Amino acid sequence: MTTTGFTAVLDRDGLGALVTALVADGRTVVGPTARDGAIVLAELDSADQLPYGWGVELEAGHYRLRRREDGAAFAHSAGPQSWKNFLHPQREKLWSADRGPDGLPVISGGPAERPSYAFLGVRPCDLRAIAIQDRVLTGGAFKDGGYEERRRGAFLIAAECTEPGATCFCVSMGGGPGADAGFDLALTEVVDDDGHRFFVRVGSRAGAELLAKVPCQEADTTTRDAAVTAVAAAVDKMGRSMPPVSLQQLMGASLEAARWDDVASRCLTCGNCTMVCPTCFCTTTEEVTDLTGDHAERWQRWDSCFDLDFSYVHGGPVRSSGRSRYRQWLTHKLGTWHDQFDSSGCVGCGRCIVWCPVGIDITEEAEALQAEAEARKKERER
C-alpha cells in the first residue's frame, strides 16, 4: 500500500478516476468550475467539469475569466468563494420548535445528516485558511459543532499554485505557493512537451488509500522536477506584498493614524471583504416563525463587522463611523488576531482586493500606515 510521502503521477484520465472513486465512496466532491463569468466552487459529478482551459485576470476591483491554450485545470487564482462556504456556511439551522398538543414546544436539532465532503483543488493559501478556522471554531471553549463535524469528515486535495495572480501576496504573509501540511493529497499540474499530468504527493493514510484505488504511475524524475521548479518559480511572481515589518505591532501603533480617514472616504462599508475572506468567521443568530406561530426556527448566519448593528449595544452601535469599522476589520485581521489565535487572520489570498467594489487594497493600506508611522517617528526624533 502507498504511504504518506509517496509520490505518483496521474494523467487526466487518472484525475477523472480519482473523482469517480470519491463519489463511489459516498463523498460530495466540490471543486472549481467555470460558471457565470468566474471560477466558482460547485459539486462535481466528474472531473470533466473542472475549468480546463480557463485562467483569470485580476486587479483591485477587477476580475475576468480568460481563455488559455494549454488546457490547464488549476491555472487560476482564488475565485470569489472559499471553502468556508461549505465548512462554515452562510446560513445554518441550529434548531426548530413546534407547539405540541399541550401547548409546550417540542424542540428538534439542526440537520440530521451533513455531507461528507471531498474538496478538490484547495489552494495552499486556503489550506492555511482552513487551519486558521480550525483554531477559531474548534480550538476554544465555545466550539461550533456543525463546523467541527463537517471539518472532521472532509477530505482535502490541494492544488499547488504555479501562476499567482496580480493580487496574491501569500509569501509576505509567511505562506507560499506550495502545500506544506493539512492535505490528504497534493497535486501539482504540469503541462509541457511530455503531456498534461499531475504530480501527486500523499499527505495522509486516507490519501494513500484513495490513490491506491486509481490508475497512476510512480513519479518520474522529469515530472517531479518540473513540478518543483514551477512551484518554486511562483514565489517570485506574487503581484502584491505586505511591508516587511511586524504587522501586529504596526496595527497596534496606528489606531489614531490619519490614513483611516482616507480609506473611510472610499470604503462603502458593504462587507464584501468579510464575505469573500476565507478566515472571517463572525456570525449572528435570528429566530423566524411561520404565520401561525406554531413553528419557530433558530438560524445562524454570517455577520460582518462592517454592519452598523454589529457592535450595537443598548443605546446604539459602538462603531458608528465607516472609519471605525474599517479600522476594526484591518487591525483585527492583521493585529489582534495574534492575541486571540496565535496567528495572523490573513493568508494573502487577495480576495478582499479583487472583490472590493472600489478597489481598496489591503497591502496598500498597510504600506500607507507604515509610511505614516515612519514619518511620525522621524518627527519625534527632530
List keywords for this structure.
four-stranded antiparallel sheet; globular; 382 residues; 2 domains; alpha+beta
Major sheet characteristics: 8 strands, mixed
> Based on CA inertia axes, which overall geometry fits?
globular
| Low-pLDDT sequence parts | none
| Helix count from the secondary structure assignment | 12
The secondary-structure class comes to: alpha+beta
Classify the beta-strand content into a percent band.
15-25%
| Strand order in space, largest sheet | 3-2-8-9-10-11-1-12
Q: What's the number of structural domains?
A: 2
Written as H for each helix and E for each strand, in order along the chain, the element string is EHEEEEHEEEHHEEEHEHHHHEEEEHHH
End-to-end distance: 69 Å
Assembly state of the chains shown: single chain
Using the CA coordinates, give the radius of gyration: 23 Å
Helix content: 25-40%
Mean pLDDT, to the nearest integer, reads 94
Quantity of strands, as a count: 16
Model description:
The structure is a single chain. The protein has 382 residues and is α+β, with helices and mostly antiparallel strands. The protein has 2 domains: 7-237, no CATH class; 247-381, no CATH class. The chain is built from 12 helices and 16 strands. Strands 3-2-8-9-10-11-1-12 form an 8-stranded mixed β-sheet, sandwiched between helices. A 4-stranded antiparallel β-sheet has the order 7-6-14-13, with no helix packed on it. A two-stranded antiparallel sheet has the order 4-5. Strand 6 and strand 7 form a beta hairpin. Helix 8 (259-266) packs across helix 10. The longest helix is centred in the C-terminal third of the chain and has 20 residues, at 322-341.
